[in-house]
Amino acid sequence: MFADKLPNVPGKSITAVLVNYAPGGKSAKHHHAGSVFVDVLTGAIRSENSATGPAKIYKGRREFLRAARE
User: Fold this and answer.
1) What is the DSSP letter of 11?
2) Cβ(46)–Cβ(56) below 8 Å
3) Cβ–Cβ under 8 Å, residues 1 and 17
4) 15, 23, 34, 55: most buried by Cβ count inside 10 Å?
């Protein structure tokens, strides 16, 4: 949806995308190079991250942040 450099943080940027899953759909195992902010608009999403513990369910209109691994 957009990508922009952060004016007050040299060398860093933000990218926003809209992801739609069909019921029961999922992403293949993957990782993110930086922090991730998620806004679940409708439905629910199950998120699992080995660095933060067991899977969690987030329902519509619930945001969560996954900090970048140092």
Assistant:
1) T
2) yes
3) yes
4) 34
Rounded Cα–Cα distance for residues 39 and 28 (Å): 19
- Considering Cα of 54, then 24, then 18, then 40, what sign does the dihedral take? negative
The CA distance from 11 to 38, in Å, is 22
Listed as ranges, residues in the chain with pLDDT below 70 are: 62-70
CB 48 within 8 A of CB 28: no
Model confidence, pTM:
0.63
Give the count of alpha carbons within 13 A of 44, CB side only. 7
Q: 23 pairs with which residues across the strands?
A: none
**Could you read off the pLDDT of 47-64 as tens digits, one per residue?**
887 777 888 888 887 666
Q: List Cβ<8 Å contacts ≥24 apart for 47-52.
A: none
